[in-house]
Amino acid sequence: MPLPTTPCPSCGRAFFASAMRFHAPQCAAKQAAMLVPCPACGVHMPGAELSMHMAKTCKEAKDRIAQASDSRRGGPQGGRSPATPPAKPLPILPQESDGRVPCAVCGRKFNPDRIAKHQFVCSTAKRQSSARKR
């Protein structure tokens, strides 16, 4: 018997093509409703809402970004005026055919429930390494 070869776009598991029409809608709904912790504050929320939470409402994520930029610039104001807005959060790219999402910073691919945490860590590490080079 042949092995299943069609990857699910949500979870990445392989299925037979005939079974995918049943699995895909259920899996997508499950992935969107799965509770994941915010990497900055630890609050659990549906994975579909994590990106918006980190961009708009997560005070800890904003504080970490501000601390990283302050240490890079050498002071609490960091050489910028208080009216200058902080850097925009990174977008979460769409899923690829294998069900994984590429990182906007390094290009590595991750499951949809892990990409927000990875991008947060990856962007912070990239900023810190670029600050050391200066």
UniProtKB/TrEMBL annotation:
Ranges annotated as biased composition (Basic and acidic residues): 61-73
Domain of life the protein comes from: Eukaryota
Select a single GO molecular function from the record's annotations and give it.
zinc ion binding
Which residue intervals make up region (Disordered)?
Answer: 61-98
Question: Is Zinc-finger one of the keywords UniProt gives this record?
Answer: yes
Compositionally skewed regions (Pro residues) per UniProt: 83-92
Stretches assigned to the C2HC/C3H-type domain: 99-128
Q: Which UniProt keywords apply?
A: Metal-binding, Repeat, Zinc, Zinc-finger
PANTHER family, from UniProt?
A: C2H2 ZINC FINGER CGI-62-RELATED, ZINC-FINGER OF A C2HC-TYPE
Name of the protein this chain belongs to: C2HC/C3H-type domain-containing protein
